[in-house]
Amino acid sequence: MRLFIALKTTPYEDELFEIENKLKLLFSDVKWVDKQNLHVTLKFLGEFKESLLKELQNVVKESLNCFNPFSFSISGISGFPDISSARVLFFSINDPEKTIEKAIKGVDVAVERFGIQREKSYVPHITFGRVKNGQADLSRFNFDKFNLNVSASGIILFESILRSEGPIYKEIFEFEFISK
After folding, report:
1. Three-class HEC string of the chain
2. For the whole model, what pTM was predicted?
3. Which CATH number fits domain 2-176: 3.20.20.30, 3.40.30.10, 3.90.1140.10, 3.40.50.720?
4. Is the pLDDT of residue 180 over 80?
């Protein structure tokens, strides 16, 4: 099973997909992310043994049981490795309390027991496209300003099933943050 952990949030997909559709007019050599697959990844786990799923659920819940629901905003467009030579296109996340990064650190420590390496560096983001050949210079464009406020209420463990027409994300389990 190919797994990843994403934030469970209030909806934002319609607004971001509208922006993505405008960007499709500017860039032709991009594999675009389908609206239903837009998400904030906390941790990509990769291939994982199904026999260890219950243990994974328990350690992830334990690592996040001190988290309360929180808010962040989506406000900008950028790319990896950088904005002027992007191979991965993403929506930027503004998380002034760094709650997303704290959650990632907790999950990182929890999943180390399965041989999964910690993140060396992490920038909270929502990937919306991957350049097929070459790079995209996003710095050449003046994108419309936007600011979407989003609430995170928990996490979802997904299985990513790869297909030639694009991945399917199947929910494996969900964990709600507890308001304290």
Report:
1. CEEEEEEEECCCHHHHHHHHHHHCCCCCCEEECCHHHCCCEEEEEEECCHHHHHHHHHHHHHHHCCCCCEEEEEEEEEEECCCCCECEEEEEEECCCCHHHHHHHHHHHHHHHHCCCCCCCCCCEEEEEEECCCCECHHHCCCCCCCEEEEEEEEEEEEEECCCCCCEEEEEEEEECCCC
2. 0.92
3. 3.90.1140.10
4. no
